[in-house]
Amino acid sequence: MDIIAPVITPFRNGKIDLDLYAEHIRNITAKGVDAVFVAGTTGLGPALSVEERKALLEAAASVARRVIFQIGSLVLDDAVALAKYAERFDAVEAVASVPPYYFPRLSERQIAKYFRDLCAATSRPVYLYNYPAAVGRDVDAKAAREIGCLKGVKDTNENIAHTLAYKRLMPHMKVYNGSDSLVLASFSVGLDGVVASSANYVPEALARLREAVARGDVERARSIQFAIDEILEAARPLGYSSAVYELVEIFQGYDAGEPRPPIYPLDPEEKAWLKAAVAQAKAKLAL
Ligand code: ELE
Fold first, then answer.
1. Mean pLDDT per 10-residue run, the chain (287 residues)?
2. Positions at the binding site for pyruvate
3. What are φ and ψ of residue 130, in 5° steps?
4. pLDDT, position 286
5. What's the pLDDT score for residue 126?
6. Cα separation, 28 vs 20, whole angstroms
7. Catalytic site positions
8. Is 42 close to ligand 1, i.e. is its CB under 6 Å away?
9. What is the pLDDT of residue 287?
């Protein structure tokens, strides 16, 4: 069961700090992260240019052994170009894509065609990144099976049964859940792993949670999950996409750069509040 980190994209003065990005990946992979998810939601993928996403991939592939590259775009040509670019790197085990978003009037046939076009463009496995809350549409297990060429799915969904259905209908598919609150559940029901934003700031806790599940210590696993839940509860009202950068600093002890507006960084009062709000969880995790 894999721990996959959807890696933050660190900005400094409006530009991506690629050295910091690589250093951050080096740190979290040393602490139990098995693979990295590049340009996902936590990585602000939809807010990055094609060139920026290529640069991130290059940096990630230089330090991580296993990379999944999120290529989703509202411009098919861009997604195809990213899929083709990914073929240069041995570390890329799959490309993943959100379904075309924003436009609610696309048909199921059109969504399926988008994924089939991606499959045709690359020899690498293509994964679905299903995130109905963000995308506005749900490509569920039945729809994914209909597409026919998908080799994996990351389902960001708080309904574990929804995620399990992919495994039921397509047993050979890699199936990951993307909700930080379902790490314990995902490991317990034997999914292929999790894509958890918390892997950016508490990778060692996720590794311990996985160990606890493996040895049947449900109580220990649950206490780690609950500490993560406390962190999420504190961070979400501040704007979680921004708070993640601060959580890296609080838990890992280094400056992780800033997000890109309109995903504005937290202001100093919010940072101080967050630090105090997660102090108990930090103590519980003994980090
Ligand atoms: C999750 C997001 C969303 C992780 C990615 C991920 O960032 O690409 O539960 O909606 O806050 O999809 O972190 O998480 P929620 O895979």
1. 98 97 98 98 97 98 98 98 97 98 95 98 97 96 98 96 98 97 96 98 98 96 98 98 98 98 98 98 89
2. 42, 195
3. -95, 120
4. 86
5. 98
6. 12
7. 129, 154
8. yes
9. 66
Place of tokens 């991939």: 57
- List Cβ neighbours of 201 (8 Å cut-off, separation of 6 or more): 231, 244, 247, 248, 250, 251, 252
Does ligand 1 have an atom closer than 6 angstroms to the CB of 195?
A: yes
Task: Verify whether ligand 1 is closer than 6 Å to residue 179 (CB atom).
Answer: yes
Task: Please give, one letter per residue, the 3-state secondary structure of the chain.
Answer: CEEEEECCCCEECCEECHHHHHHHHHHHHHCCCCEEEECCCCCCHHHCCHHHHHHHHHHHHHHCCCEEEECCCCCHHHHHHHHHHHCCCCCEEEEEECCCCCCCCCCHHHHHHHHHHHHHHCCCCEEEEECHHHHCCCCCHHHHHHHCCCCEEEECCCCHHHHHHHHHHCCCCEEEECCHHHHHHHHHCCCCEEECHHHHCCHHHHHHHHHHHHCCCHHHHHHHHHHHHHHHHHHHHHCHHHHHHHHHHHHHCCCCCECCCCCCCCCHHHHHHHHHHCHHHHHHHCC
Give phi and psi for 35, each to the nearest 5. Answer: -150, 160
User: How distant, in Å, are the alpha carbons of 14, 60, 174 from that of 265?
Assistant: 12, 23, 34
Domains of the chain from N-terminus onward: 2-214 (3.20.20.70)
CA of residue 6 to ligand 1 center, whole Å = 8
**CA 236 to ligand 1: nearest atom:** 11
Angle (nearest 5°) at CA 252 between 250 and 257: 75
What's the CA-to-centroid distance between 145 and ligand 1, angstroms? Answer: 23
